[in-house]
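Dear colleagues,

As part of the handover before I leave the project, I'm documenting each prediction I ran so the next person doesn't have to rerun anything. This entry is a single chain, and its sequence is reproduced below.
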Amino acid sequence: MPRRKKCVCLYSLSLKETAKQLLKGCQFIDSKTEPFSQYNKLRDSPLKISPSREVEDLDLNAEQRVLKVWVGNLPDTVVQDVFRLAMLQLESQLMIDKDKKLILTLINIESIKMSDFLFGVHSLLKILRGFSITDLNISKRLWLILWEYEEILHQGLLKEAISEALPHFASISSLSLPYLADDRIMNVIRKYLPCLTNLDVSHSCITDKGLRHLMSPLCVLHRPDQPNPNIIRNLTSFLDSPERVYSSNFRLSLEPRSDKCLAKQLETLKLESCDSVTDSGVRFILEHFSNLKVLIYHQRRSVLEILLKWLTEHNDSEKTPELRLEHLEHAFPYSIAPFSEQLTTLRIICPKVTTINIVTEDFVLPHLVGFCNLTTLTVELEDCIGEGFISFLKQKGSELSELYVSCSTDPESTLSTVEGGHQGQLFNIVTVAAGMFCTKLKKLSVSGCGLVSKE
């Protein structure tokens, strides 16, 4: 049957067209901009935080001010949706013949015009200054494409733009900067983003020093009281006035707050493929980031392995720490496998864990029952499906909402470790067991061609 078409709401159509015009305007402005003089001037001058959306920002050029006035007729929540759609449209543009464009850029590196590779992002970040943006919705794929151009051009213009823009977005609570973050940007983040709770700097060049920056005091931004930015403007007064009127009596102050730092409020931190972050840096995070719920990291050791090593070095006379981590991961490659008694201790220091991703053996699974809040389990068994798996589901299955099971995909190695194991029954056994014991299960995934124990 043909796919049924849906009616698109007026809000979505308006957002799409507004985002299209905004991106087009920003790309036009960027194409006429000389980026080197712009950022050299900024680097030599003291930081000036932009005023609120109601006040004219004299640091913008004439074209950027016109665009900001146009966008300023929308509530902040709508502006954020427009920005998100503009970034999706830019991603679609850059994905067309991406590899070909990158190769041509590399071939013609000496004759290209740098402003052609700003893509409108630089002006867009400037225009959004002063708006209450809570999330820079830029996908990891778009950051990757922009980073690839950045690597070819060897100019660091995008990093300069981000470093200059971030202090103006004090209301951001969620920030994703994969591929582009470094220690300098981490220092900017810790100073000027007091509302930040979720940070993704995966695939970037940050080091342990950059992570320690987050322990330094925040600089809190003080603005005068402004009208509610989410109220639609009065169209009558807007149409009757020949131009927008801005207040010149605007004062802004930055005050350091020694009692507040990002390390105490971050809930999610993603450090995937950050090669310069060491185990010591991760341990520092575990010790000092007291509100952290999700920590994504896996280089030579997983977070779980680092936790276990920390426990072995822990002095019995010291108070056992209690972490707020809700996510634990122990995947390939790993150095050590957790023992059952170590999992018992792990339950004490991580009592709030809701999600576990682990590579282990069948007999270890019953020891996961002690994680009282566990609702999502991803397990890869290195031997077989056996009594341990069934015992775990009998005790814990009624509380699971998601279960992902994988068993060894190498039948030859598995046959040598399990005597009398049955092959080809993995899917059947897991499905039947989940149906019997997991009454609240919403998602089930079974993969691999491992064995099922005869017991």
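The longest helix spans residues 10-31. Residues 113 and 441 are 56 Å apart (CA to CA).

All the best with the project,
I.
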